[in-house]
Each structure stands twice: as structure tokens, then as C-alpha cells.
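Question (not urgent): is this output format expected?
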Amino acid sequence: MNDLKTKSPKGKVGMWILVVAIFGSLVLLVAYFAQSDTTSDNTADTPIDSKNFDTQADLDKMDERAISESEFYDTIPFYPEVTGNPIVKSNFDFEVSLTSDKYVYFRGLQLPYLWLDIKNLGSVDDKYNIRLKSAVPEGWDSVPEFAGHTWLEPGQQDGFKLTYKQIYAGLNQEEVESTFTYEVTSEQSSQSLEFDVTMVVYPELSSTMGAPGSAPEAEQGKRPCDIKGTVKDSQTGGSIEGAEVSLWLGNKVRLMPYDMVRITGSNGVFELPCWSVAAINEHYSPYFEVEGYRLLVQKSGYETYVYNDYLNPDNEQMRSVDIELTPLVWASEYDLVWEKGLAHPGVWEIAPTDNWDRFAVAMGKHPDPNDAQYMPSVVSFLDDSGSVLWQKDLADESWAVDVAGDGTYVACAIEDGDGGHYLWDAQGNEIWKNTPVHGGLEIVFSPDNKQIGSGPSAAADGFVLYDTQSGDELWTSTAGSRGARAVTFSEDGQYVFAAPILHKFDLEGNLQWRRFISYVPYVIRLSSDNNYVMVADKGDVVSMFDFDGNLLWRKEHFLITYADMSEDASITAVLTSYGELFAYNAEGELLWYRLVPGTTTEQCVYCSGAGHNGVDVTSDGEYIAVGSGNYHTVLYDREGNIVWQHEGDAELDMSVHPLRRSVMAVRISDDGSKIISGYGTSDPRVLFFERSEE
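Got this back:
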């Protein structure tokens, strides 16, 4: 089954076959209903294909119900449900507003974020601080006293995200209700504003229903829910081994996909456990209900298959699915040219030269900074054969490295310790070293290689622009707590952007504008025409601005690890630590959603995530390289099809954090012909791939 449409027979023979088939289906339908009162739950499943539908009208109705990925994505509420009354409070200097004073949050389903809008009513720039004034209720976890801050220009209004990430540690099977009191202050106002928010928290499905495919159906003597079927090649009819089949309800539903992902065996067969749709709806009643699951099938070299309707395993006819995958005519193969093992702690970032003849590699030990096993760190400079040209010992881990486009310089920033910012020439000779109060988490060359942007400055909370040749500070500026986590120059080299609080400067250090994003923005991308500014945030937000600082759109996800954008902004790829990949166009419309292969193995479910620098989009947006869990390197095309993938052969170390078992950094050349990826701390190495000659 590929598109749920009847195949038209040719000639008179075909017509008689069709008549007989329809008549036979009607007979079977009558027989089915005649036995419906006595048929047991062990009745054999009937695959979902054109043979199961009784009339053309049924098929037409099914086609009318077909939904796009974007429509499906938006079917389930993203934020907690609003059940209270709006909040609007103001003084002479600023105004705060919240959609409601009471919310219902379904743990494991929704992101626990509340957007507080703040408007600057004054005549000067102002900084606003949000803190929790009341005590944290008993049983609640990770609710910080200081909620954060934001900067606003006169008349500007923007949203600030209140987060309840580890929302209620002691929650079991009963809902919990607590009230929080927040206070908003500003530097320019002597008056503060307070407001109360009540949160009602529901337990996760797994805490009340068990694992997918088990209770409550089994407890009630019914057949546990599952969806099974086969995956075959549409051209040859042969079984497809190694296809990844998953059920999902959109990114808004974290109850899946990890227990509902399976890999087909040599016979192309899969069986997916799942929860009863009726039981899901009973759990979330009366706030909303779902119609069913979506089915997604991925296999390298084939068009990605997305079932065009809802699957409801409560219906016997919706429990078996026969799928045909269409081979890609443009599928490519890549050869592993070389791989190079490196010292601990593990690959964090890879920076290639313009012609991809050399690579600077930074080593970082996240998420275990105090583990002495992975000390000390190094920065390495490799050529295109995998040979180490030189290697430098560092006093601390490095999350930041860049190489001049022509390979003449390598710049590096270490997080802390003795030394912060370094510059070496192509031979590894130290040109200069600067030692700010803290090190830096980002370092970037300007397009002409004459300046280097990094952070923090000596104030430990800013941005610094260096002269490349001398290492002198040209100017510094505050960029936010712990300094600049992301730095990007415009293509013409006339402007530089730095975050956590997003700043736009000219090369003389004059501030053009600044915008509060959310938690820790660590990716900034600009379109070549200077019309779009994309910012990805560790606090789960992807924002798109125009060059004047106007917010065009904002998308929220859970635990974003990295994002990238094509030069024309036609596609923005967003990767989460759970291996979810989202593609948006310039207008913020969802193009497609994928669960990247590698998040599950036979050894464990969700035993690995996606890397922190694990997505790279070619300039034209035709290819998206992804570093996934369990050492998978995956290449998607613009339409969301897997063109190629490499499954790592390293032995998985289950004792370490999932992110350390992933491809932590991946980069692809602009023409899509070369890919380089680096493994995390469990098995640090660099792999270089090149498109096969055809």
C-alpha cells in the first residue's frame, strides 16, 4: 500500500476482475457484520490496502481526509491548556500580561512553557527581571527563584518564557495543583508587578497505563494494541530490510516515539506496540482528544513514506499495514575515505576550510565536565587525508574553534582555565593568546579574516572583537550572561551578531538593536540577502527575525541541540536531542518532520540522542547532513528523504550519557560531495566521506 488508491485494471478482463472484487468485498462486509457479536479478539488482521475498502466512495472519502504533515503537526495543543482568566497588570513604566492565571499541563505530552508578555511603556531602554517570589511548593523540582530577564526598547513588547521543565518529581497517578507567585521589576521603575499562576499537572501515560501495548487493554482481557505489517519495494516487490517504522503524534507528544519504533528484519515485517487511542483520550479528557497515530517509514535510498491519515489500532482493520516504498532516482552513495581516532574528551566541533583541504577539530567533554578521565583537552588540525598536521594541549575543554577560509589561521577558545582565546598559523605556531576572566564558548573569523569575534570580554559577560593580526581588542560589549555563546558576521562583513541576548553591531561596535531570545541561543544564521536572521536556542526556541530586528516567527521544541539554515532561508533545519528533525520554510511553515535513525537500537530504547552540532545545511538547501545517535551519520534531501546514511561500527558504551554516544558534529560541503563527522566522548574519532564516483 502506498497511496490507498485502487489500481485500475486494463481491458475487459480487468473490468470483470474489478466487478468480482467489489462483489466479493460486499459479501465479506455482510459476513463481518453478521458475525460481529460473536467474533473473538483473535480474528485475523486484514492489511490496510485498496482491497479492504468496499466502494470507490469509501476511497474518495479517505482521500478527502488525507492531511498534510503541517496539519497533523498542529492537531495537538502545544502549550498547557488555558482554564483560567487573563492577567493584565501595569504601572507607569511597563505592562505585563499572561494568557491565563490557571493552566492544565499534561506531563509527557506538552512543553511546560508559559509566555509572559512585557511591554516597555517608558521612553528609554529598560531591563526587566522576573523572579519567583513565593516558595517552591513541596514536590516540585527545578523551579528556579530567578526566572530570567529581558531587554526592551521604548514601546517594544516581547514574550518571556516561564519554564517548568522538571515540573513535578513526585507525580504518580493523580493530578497535582500548585500556585506560584512571580514578581517583575525593572531598572527604570521603582514599582514592581506581581501575579499568581496556578498549574494543574497530569501524570504521564506510562505511569497510569504502563508500556505501549500493555495495560489497560490487557488488564481488561482485551488484546493489547499493536500495529504490524510489511515493507516492500514498489518496483521489485521484494521485502525491505532495515527500514525504520515509527508511530508518532507530532513533536508535541513526547509519549513517543521511542517505544514505538521498530526496524524491519530480512522479511520486511514490523510490529509496533502502542496505546489504545480510546485510552489516550480517556486519560486526557475533557481537554482534547486525538484521532489516531501517524505512521512514518524511512529507509536510505527510498522516498520517505508518511501514511496520509490517522491509524487507530482500536479498529481491527487499522492494525495491519502493507507499505510499498518508492526507490529514489537521485539516491547517492558515499565512501568512507578515512577515519582518525583522537584523544579524549571527544569531538565537539569541526571547522573546514573553504576548499575542504584542512579541518580544525575542538574537543569537549560535555555533559560530564568534572570527569577526570577525559582531561586534558586538545585542538587538532587535520588535512584531507586524515593526517594530524599539529595538535595543541589545552588547559580546559574547547567548544569553539574556527579556521580562516584559506587555512592561514586557526582560532580557538577554551571554556575556562589558564588561557582563553588562541590564534595559531597554518603550521601551528602561536600568534597570540588572550586570557579574559573566563574563556569563551564561541569564536568566529570575519569573512575577510581581518577580525575575530568571541566572548566573553574581560567583563565575563560580553562580546569582544579582536584584530586578527595583533590580537588587540578593537571593542567589547555586553552580550549577556557568561558571554557570547553564538557569533556570526554578515556576508558583506559590515555587521556582527552576538548572543545570548541577540545584538546587532556594526564593525565599529555601534549597537543597531538587541532582542531577548530565551535561554541560551547558540546558533545564529543569516541569509545572504540580509533579509533573515535565524536564532536557535538551547531553551527550545527557534526564532526568525528580519535584519531590522522584527520578529517574523517563533517555534518551540523540546531540547534543541542545533539548527542551520540555507543561504536563501528557504529551509531551516532544527534538530532536538531526541533525534527529531524539523524543516521550515522562510515563512515558518512546517515542511516536514522526521525521527532521525539512530535513536533506538536492539540493545535499548532511547539509548542515544542527537549531537550538539549535529545538523548542517548546504547553501542551496538541497542537502541536510545530520549527526544522530549511536554514531549514525544521515543525509536528507530537501524533501525529507534519506539519500544516504552511515551506521557507526563503534562498540556502544551504555555507561555513558546518550549524547556522548552520538555524532556530536557533522559538516557537509556546499556541493554535497563531502561529509565529515565526529563522534562523542564514548569513542572520539573523525570520519571523512566522499560521494562515490558513478
